[in-house]
Write a structure and sequence with these properties.
The protein is built from six helices and five strands. The chain is α/β, with parallel strands linked by helices. A five-stranded parallel β-sheet has the order 3-2-1-4-5, sandwiched between helices. It binds adenosine-5'-diphosphate.
C-alpha cells in the first residue's frame, strides 16, 4: 500500500491546499494530511488542533482514503515511523521552488527511502496562500472564494478577533 503525506502549516487551509490533497488522494492508496507544529511560523492564527479540525471539515466526504494528523518533530522521522513513501508538495511559482528543493533534499538525506513529489498548483490557485486569506480578511475583503465554504465563517471570525474587531 502506497502511503503519502501532505504536510504544511495550514493556517488556515485554503482551496489551493484542498486541491493538492485531493489530487494526491487519487494517486496514492492513502494520504495523511499532517499539520506540522514545529514550523517556522510562531504567530499562527489557529492552534494546531483547530487547524486539524478545519481541514477535517473541508475534505470531501467521499475522500475516504485521507486522514488528518498533527506532528511536532522531524517530517523524515514521522514518515519512517509510519512507512510513508512520499511527501506531496504543491508548487505555486519559482519562489516556492528553492525552499521546497532544500526541504526535499534534507528529507532525502535524513530518510533515503522517502520521495518528494511536486505537483504544480492549479492555475486558479497559483496566487493563493494562507497569508493572502488572512490579509484580505483583515481588510474586510471577501475570502469565500479562497477557502472551503464549510469553514469560511470561522476564518472570518478569527481574523476579526485577531484584529480587535470583535
Ligand atoms: P508551509 O508552511 O510549508 O508554507 P503551507 O501550509 O503554506 O505550508 O502549505 C503546505 C503545502 O501546500 C506546501 O507544499 C505548499 O506549497 C502547498 N500550497 C500552499 N498553497 C497552495 C496553492 N495555492 N496551490 C497549491 N499548493 C499550495
Amino acid at each position: 500500500m502506497k502511503l503519502a503525506i501532505c504536510p504544511g502549516s495550514f493556517d488556515p487551509v485554503t482551496n489551493g491546499h484542498i486541491d493538492i490533497i485531493s489530487r494526491a488522494a487519487k494517486i496514492f492508496d492513502r494520504v495523511i494530511v499532517v499539520v506540522m507544529m514545529n514550523y517556522n511560523k510562531p504567530n499562527s492564527y489557529f492552534t494546531a488542533a483547530e487547524r486539524v479540525e478545519l481541514i477535517r471539515r473541508s475534505l470531501p466526504e467521499d475522500m475516504t482514503n485521507c486522514v488528518v494528523d498533527m506532528y511536532d518533530g522531524l517530517l523524515a522521522d514521522y514518515c519512517r515511523e509510519r512507512n510513508v513513501c512520499a511527501v506531496v508538495k504543491g508548487l505555486r511559482a519559482v519562489s516556492d521552488f528553492e525552499y521546497e528543493f532544500q526541504q526535499a533534499l534534507t528529507n532525502k538525506q535524513l530518510n533515503p527511502d522517502l520521495e518528494t513529489v511536486f505537483m504544480t498548483a492549479d492555475a486558479k490557485h497559483m496566487y493563493l496562500s494562507s497569508s493572502v486569506v488572512k490579509q484580505v480578511g483583515e481588510f474586510g475583503g471577501d475570502i469565500s472564494q479562497f477557502v472551503p465554504p464549510q469553514i469560511c465563517d470561522d476564518i472570518v471570525k478569527r481574523v476579526k478577533e485577531r484584529n480587535g474587531k470583535i
